[in-house]
Write a sequence for this structure.
């Protein structure tokens, strides 16, 4: 069970956790170590609180609950809101970690109607490809979320393979985050081969787990009623 925290982890616990702490992707400073076996994730999803609602729903979904981090609660701390989640790396020592985003589309249909132009997404875009923005986008130094998400999908293997590799970490090394343009089949295969180190037993276990995940998604009441 999660600790009954009213503040971040104790100094001793935090010091020990930070020795091995790393974040592969997601919003910078979006995570913090909490109790043994849990992390705090800064709330996202806007006023609708979508992320918390999804975690709560999947926790109740018998098909999917074993495939998502355990959700514990929402926490208010110093004016910020966090959700407390299971730390899937707790108990591992310098593990192999890969962050993969599944799906042939990574945005909701509702994003199409959002026309707010954001400078942070413009900065992310030019970090990948300085020539990607149009002349008007360069002048405004801002792009919409839909424009950025479509750009990311076109730059990666999302559309062609149904997933993209966001980042990875190998034992003894720093996080590898320059994978945003891994796109064609050879690039994807080489990246996976580097990560899996040609361990066929691990490949077979991973393949079996992915097949199980697919069957669970197809049978999931949540996925049958949501995008």
């Amino acid at each position: 069970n999660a600790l009954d925290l009213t503040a971040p982890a104790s100094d001793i616990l935090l010091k020990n956790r930070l020795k091995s702490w790393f974040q592969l992707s997601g919003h910078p400073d979006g995570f913090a170590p909490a109790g043994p076996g849990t992390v705090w994730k800064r709330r996202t999803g806007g006023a609708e609180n979508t992320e918390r609602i999804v975690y709560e729903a999947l926790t109740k979904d018998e098909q999917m609950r074993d495939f998502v981090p355990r959700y514990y609660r929402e926490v208010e701390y110093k004016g910020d809101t966090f959700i407390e989640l299971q730390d899937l790396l707790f108990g591992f020592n310098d593990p192999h970690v890969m962050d993969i985003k599944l799906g042939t589309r990574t945005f909701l249909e509702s994003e199409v109607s959002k026309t707010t132009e954001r400078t942070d997404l413009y900065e992310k875009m030019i970090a990948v490809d300085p020539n990607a923005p149009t002349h008007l986008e360069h002048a405004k130094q801002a792009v919409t979320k839909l424009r950025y998400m479509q750009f990311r999908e076109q730059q990666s293997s999302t559309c062609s393979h149904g997933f993209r590799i966001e980042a990875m970490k190998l034992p003894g090394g720093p996080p590898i985050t320059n994978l945003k343009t891994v796109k064609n089949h050879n690039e994807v295969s080489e990246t996976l081969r580097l990560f899996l180190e040609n361990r066929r037993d691990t490949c077979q276990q991973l393949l079996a787990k992915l097949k199980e995940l697919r069957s669970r998604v197809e049978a999931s009441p949540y996925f049958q009623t949501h995008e």
Remarks:
- The CA atoms of residues 156 and 183 lie 4 Å apart.
- The chain has two domains: 11-86, 97-196.
- DSSP finds nine helices and eight strands in the chain.
